[in-house]
Amino acid sequence: MNELPNCETLLLERDSGVLHVTLNRPDSRNAMSLAMVGELRALLAALGDDRETRVVVLRGAGGHFCAGGDIKDMAGARAAGVDAYRELNRAFGSLLEEAQALPQVLIVVLEGAVLGGGFGLACVSDIAICAGSAQFGLPETSLGVIPAQIAPFVVKRIGLTQARRLALSAARFDGREALRLGLVHFVEEDANSLAERLLESLEQVRRCAPGANAATKALLLASEGADLGPLLDSAAQRFAEAVSGAEGSEGTLAFLQKRKPNWAR
Predict the structure, then answer these.
(1) CA within 20 to 30 Å of 86's CA: 34, 137, 195, 265, which one?
(2) Residue 89 has pLDDT above 90, yes or no
């Protein structure tokens, strides 16, 4: 199990193969500061080859997920000019890329503000659970800026037509609309229901072999824009390696013996 980095803006808790990560800047509705981006990226790097951590659950403290980028950081970069703004913005895009490619299953629990950068994090999750009262939106254009790093992930998540409407109107919407758009998978009306849905999702993921999940996630992500023939050739090779590997052998044997495989016990 890899050692986790020390964090000032994140709360970390490990529990039976699950890493609970809480964005912990409640005084700013967990706005994404440069320090938080750096800590999240360091955490994801530490998890890259950690096979004992099977699921990462990401949520926010104080009743909000994330209200977007930290305006104070943007103001602080003003004196350094365009280059500082570019580096600040691109760092968040790198975070989204790294979160999307995480080999573990990424579950987000969305409450309160899910705006801008928080919206982007929701778009790179594998499983998204939200409160019906959560408030989603892309407010960038109402501030005179653009959702530069977020936009490609939003388009992939909900499609170009809806992304255009939301980005060009800065419209706010709730959890039920997020479900209709395909941004989230589950919407719950109270804290108990949110907790129960999270437990159910964790139980379902635990039934799946961690190595098989990581390979499947990589295959699904590679399918976007890839040529079909080479993609299927690569998938066949991955299948052969999986079925002849330790997890494939254990999974098929467990099926024949009518028992749970060792990763699901």
Answers:
(1) 137
(2) no
